[in-house]
Amino acid sequence: DVQLQAFGGGLVQPGVSLRLSCAASGFLVDRYAVGWYRQAPGKKREGVACIWSTEGDTGYSDSVKGRFTISRDNAKDVLSLQMNNLKPEDTAVYYCKAVTRGDIYWGQGTEVTVSS
């Protein structure tokens, strides 16, 4: 079975940068898109950033545009989310997601807490 593992979360102060990573184990083929979601305490899960596999196009939610950057390392098969100038409202559990032909895979999530 395919499993996604997210890493890099932590408890940080506002303005700090974090880099989240997501690695896949098992066979992950026929990818359509990969991306990051987050779920803040008491709120529904929302999309943060994504990359479409063929063209490499990226998309971001309005709340993170200009601060977050999604990227992928094809050689290592790792998806990353560079998070700059973190704000308290960024506090959430962040999940990586992969969409393939016929299936959707979610990582276990990594917790990011931004507080002074």
Can you describe this structure?
The protein has 116 residues and is mostly beta strands. It is built from no helices and 11 strands. The chain has strands at residues 3-7, 10-12, 18-25, 31-39, 46-52, 58-60, 68-73, 78-83, 92-100, 103-106, 110-114. A hairpin with a 4-residue loop joins strand 7 and strand 8 (78-83). 26% of the residues are buried.
List the helices and strands and how they pair.
Elements: E1 3-7, E2 10-12, E3 18-25, E4 31-39, E5 46-52, E6 58-60, E7 68-73, E8 78-83, E9 92-100, E10 103-106, E11 110-114
Parallel strand pairs: 2-11
Antiparallel strand pairs: 1-3, 3-8, 4-5, 4-9, 5-6, 7-8, 9-10, 9-11
Descriptors:
116 residues, mainly beta, seven-stranded mixed β-sheet, four-stranded antiparallel β-sheet, 0% helix
Report the sheet with the most strands, covering strand number, pairing sense and barrel closure.
7 strands, mixed
Give the CA-based shape.
globular
DSSP summary, beta strand count: 11
State the order of secondary-structure elements, H for helix, E for strand: EEEEEEEEEEE
Average per-residue pLDDT, rounded, comes to 92
The CA-CA distance between the termini, in Å, is 40 Å
Structural class of the secondary elements? mainly beta
Uncertain segments: none
Portion in beta strands: over 45%
Helix content: under 10%
- Counting H and I runs of at least 4 residues, what is the number of helices? 0
Radius of gyration: 14 Å
